[in-house]
Amino acid sequence: MSDPLASFLTSLDLVDTGARTSEDISTGPSEWMPQGRVFGGQVLAQSLVAAGRTAPEGRAAHSMHGYFLRPGDANLPITFGVDRIHDGRSFSTRRTQAYQEGVPILSMIASFQEEQPGLEHQEAMPEGLPDPESLPSAAEALHGVDHPVAKHWATSRAFDLRHVEQPIYFTADGERTARQAVWLRAIGRLPDDPIVHRAALAYASDYAILEPILRRHGAPWGTPGLKMASLDHAMWWHRDGRADEWVLYTQESPSASSGRGLSLGRIFDRAGRLLATVAQEGMVRVPGASRETLTR
Predict the structure, then answer these.
(1) Which one of the listed residues 205, 206, 253, 269 is annotated catalytic?
(2) Which top-level group of life is the source organism from (predicted)?
(3) Does 230 participate in catalysis according to the annotation?
(4) By residue range, what is the domain housing residue 188?
(5) Closest alpha carbon to 200 in 187, 210, 209
């Protein structure tokens, strides 16, 4: 298997099929995953790149809203159809549909804008958190665990991910809080292309975003019978930043109910600049979970 960063970059290298339709049609490969399902962050990133390549020069992605419709097959390529919905004076809107075997697995709308002067403010970055260099990597946290998913998380991810709190891979013994923070950095240097870095942040934003829901109820990823799936994903980019330098991803879950949970996230660079805001709702089904356990 190829280097995870190289695989990630390849997955963003979309190729024009030459088809003549009302949409711009491209194809991209799927990244290998141990459970055979396409990683949601991968198809989000690819869909964003496909849309961005049709936007006028100088217009960067500032928001996207996507729905995961079906599980993707990691053994199959993905076809991306981009509809050029609108090009205005400052904004461009694109819809991307990601298909496998003729059926959509993701539907996304993204908006692109020229950089313009305007009002400036942002939420402050949390203070007093440990530096990423002082925290164990996933490889160190999962050392010696004999499990295919754990081995993938430890050695094959495209990003180095380091939890500020104790990770909840197989145990969740710490405080039952619906908040956490992780440091992220792409493994290796990425090209100096803003769309690649925004797409890379979209890719990484799908990591761990639902973990505050599990942490709140003391349920680790290794809970027998746990079923989780991303339902939708929204992201807003506020400022340019590099995904191959450390960023802090703070996450919280304001609510869980009806087998669903909502998580919100903010991504800061090390200088404290707020790069992006994320929201995702996911299906979260924990065997034996009752109303009592979900509210205590």
Answers:
(1) 206
(2) Bacteria
(3) yes
(4) 134-296
(5) 187
